[in-house]
Design goal:
CATH class of the largest domain: Alpha Beta
Cofactor: FAD
Pfam families: FAD_binding_3 (PF01494)
Radius of gyration: 24 Å
Pathway: Cofactor biosynthesis; NAD(+) biosynthesis; quinolinate from L-kynurenine: step 1/3
Bound molecules: flavin-adenine dinucleotide
GO molecular function, one term: FAD binding
Enzyme class: oxidoreductase
Number of strands: 17
Helix content: 40-55%
Strand content: 15-25%
Order of helices and strands: EHEEHHEEEEHEEEEHEEEEHHEEHHHHHH
C-alpha cells in the first residue's frame, strides 16, 4: 500500500508532494495528463498567472522561489486603457516598488514536477485519470492508456482542480456536499506578439481595459509577448457568441478596444479558435474524510479577479504543514485542523475575488477610484504599518484572508469616524468664527 497518494499533479499537487517528501513521506502523484514537460500546451488555456507573496512564501519553504522568479516578470501596478485618452498607470503599493509577478503556468508546473521527481520518496504517474475512490479504504481506480489500474493509499489528497474527481467521489459516497456557483461570464485568451523584437506594451504592468459590463486584461510573458484574457458575459450583446464573423470581431475591437487590433495581428484567428473557459466558485464541506482530503481548487476554486487562486492553493500547503507539525503527524487530527483553520480564509478570498471583478471592470477608470487609491497610499505613507490597503494585505502579506477583511473593515470604520470628527470640528470652527463676527 502507498503511504500517500496525491491525485492531480498540477500546481498544488506537486508542491504538496515536495513538502511531504521533505517530511520523509512516501508519495505517489497521479496525473491525468501526459508528462507536460514533453508535450505542448493546450491552446488558449490561461498560460500565465500572477504570483504574489503567499505563493512565493510557500515556494520559498521548498527552496524554489528564486528559480521560479528567474523567469517571472514583475508588474508594479495596473495600466488602465480607456477607450480614448491617455493610459493611466496606478502603482500597487505606496512606494511604487512592490510587484506581483507574471509567471508562465506551464513553466511553474514543470519546475515543481522536476523538484518532486528529484525527491527519492516521490513517484510520478502520468496518464492516470482517477475514476473511482473509496473514501473508507483509500482504494483508487485510474484509467490509463493500458487499461484500468488499481491502487490503495493510507492518505489520499485531491489536488485535481476545480472539476475534482476526488471531490466527485466524496460527494457520491455521501461524505461531502458541494455547490458550484458559475459566473455569468466566461474567458477567452488572445495574444499580443512582440513588436520589432520588444514588448508591444509596458512590461512592468498588468494591463486592464475596463469596459463596464466586461473587461480585458494582459500579462507579459518572458518571450516578450502578452497574453490577453477577455472576461465577457455569456449572453447579451457583448457576449462572445455575438461576434460571429471576422468583420464583426474587427469592428467590435476597433470600437471598444481601439489600441488592440494594431498590436494583435492574430486577433481574429485567436478569437475564432480559442475556447471560452468557465468561471465560478466551488464551495464544499467537509473537505476531508478520515483519510481523504481536498486541497487547492478542488476544495475551494475561486474566480480569478484577485489573482489569488494559485497563491491560495500554495498557501494551503503551508497551512497543512503547520497542522502536521501541531498534531505530531497524526493525520486524522491534522486534516481536521487543516479544514478548521483554513475554511474561513478561503471563504474570505472567494468573496474578495468576486468583489474585485466589479472593481476591475467598472471602477478602476473612474476619478473617484483614482482619488481613493491616492488617499490610501497617502495614509499608508503617513501611518506605516497601521493603515495598509486591502490590495497590499492580500497580495504582499501572508495575513490570513479572513483577518484581512476584518482589518480593512476596522480601518474603514476608523477613517469614517475620523472623517465625521473632522467634519464636526470644521463645522464647530466655522460656527465659532460666525459667532465672533
Ligand atoms: C483565467 C484564469 C486566470 C488565473 N489567474 C490566476 C492568477 O493570476 N494568480 C493566481 O494565483 N491564480 C490564478 N488562477 C487560478 C489558478 O489557475 C488555480 O487556482 C490553480 O491552478 C489551482 O491549482 P490546483 O493545483 O489546485 O489545480 P490545477 O492547477 O487545476 O491542477 C489540477 C491538476 O489535476 C489534474 N487532474 C484533473 N482531474 C484529474 C483526475 N481525474 N485524475 C488525475 N489528475 C487529474 C489536472 O490535469 C491538473 O494537472 C487563474 C485561473 C484562471 C481560470
Amino acid at each position: 500500500m502507498t503511504r500517500i497518494a496525491v491525485v492531480g499533479g498540477g500546481l498544488a499537487g506537486c508542491l504538496l508532494a515536495c513538502v511531504l517528501a521533505q517530511r520523509g513521506e512516501e508519495v505517489v502523484v497521479y496525473e491525468r495528463r501526459p508528462d507536460p514537460r514533453t508535450g505542448t500546451a493546450e491552446r488558449g488555456r490561461s498560460i500565465n498567472l500572477a504570483l504574489s507573496e503567499r505563493g512565493l512564501n510557500a515556494l520559498r519553504r521548498v527552496g524554489l522561489e528564486q528559480q521560479v522568479l528567474t523567469d517571472g516578470l514583475p508588474m508594479r501596478g495596473r495600466m488602465i486603457h480607456p477607450v480614448t485618452g491617455p493610459l493611466d498607470f496606478q502603482p500597487y503599493s505606496a512606494d511604487g516598488e512592490r510587484a506581483i509577478n507574471s509567471i508562465s503556468r506551464g513553466a511553474l508546473n514543470n519546475v515543481l514536477l522536476d523538484a518532486a521527481e528529484k525527491s527519492p520518496t516521490v513517484q510520478l504517474r502520468f496518464e492516470h485519470r482517477l475514476v473511482e475512490l473509496d473514501p473508507e479504504t483509500g482504494a483508487l481506480v485510474f484509467e490509463t492508456p493500458r487499461g484500468r489500474v488499481h491502487a490503495e493509499a493510507g492518505v489520499v489528497f485531491g489536488t485535481d482542480g476545480a472539476g475534482s474527481a476526488v471531490r466527485g467521489e466524496l460527494v457520491r459516497h455521501g461524505v461531502t456536499s458541494e455547490t458550484l456557483d458559475f459566473l455569468d461570464y466566461g474567458y477567452k485568451e488572445l495574444s499580443i506578439p512582440p513588436r520589432d523584437g520588444d514588448f508591444a506594451l509596458e512590461p512592468r504592468a498588468l494591463h486592464i481595459w475596463p469596459r463596464g459590463r466586461s473587461m480585458m486584461i494582459a500579462l507579459p510573458n518572458p518571450d516578450r509577448s502578452f497574453t490577453c484574457t477577455l472576461f465577457w458575459p455569456n449572453s447579451g450583446t457583448s457576449a462572445f457568441a455575438s461576434l460571429s464573423s471576422p468583420a464583426a470581431v474587427e469592428r467590435f475591437f476597433a470600437e471598444h478596444y481601439p489600441d488592440v487590433p494594431p498590436l494583435a495581428p492574430g486577433l481574429v484567428d485567436d478569437y475564432q479558435h480559442n475556447p471560452v473557459g468557465l468561471l465560478g466558485t466551488v464551495r464544499c464541506a467537509p473537505w476531508h474524510s478520515g483519510r481523504v482530503c481536498l486541497l487547492g481548487d478542488a476544495a475551494h476554486a475561486i474566480v480569478p479577479f484577485y489573482g489569488q487562486g494559485a497563491n491560495c492553493a500554495f498557501e494551503d500547503v503551508t497551512v497543512l504543514e503547520r497542522c502536521l507539525d501541531n498534531t505530531g503527524g497524526d493525520w486524522t487530527r491534522a486534516l481536521r485542523l487543516f479544514e478548521d483553520s483554513r475554511r474561513d480564509d478561503t471563504e474570505a478570498i472567494a468573496r474578495m475575488a468576486l468583489a474585485n471583478f466589479i472593481e476591475m471592470r467598472d471602477k478602476v477608470a473612474s476619478p473617484a477610484f483614482r482619488l481613493g487609491r491616492h488617499l490610501e497610499h497617502t495614509l499608508e505613507r503617513l501611518l506605516p504599518g497601521r493603515y495598509v490597503s486591502r490590495y497590499e494585505l492580500v497580495s504582499f502579506s501572508t495575513v490570513p484572508y479572513a483577518e484581512v477583511q476584518r482589518r480593512v473593515r476596522r480601518q474603514h470604520g476608523l477613517l469614517t469616524a475620523a472623517g465625521i470628527g473632522l467634519s464636526a470640528a470644521l463645522a464647530g470652527g466655522l460656527a465659532g468664527l460666525r459667532g465672533r463676527r
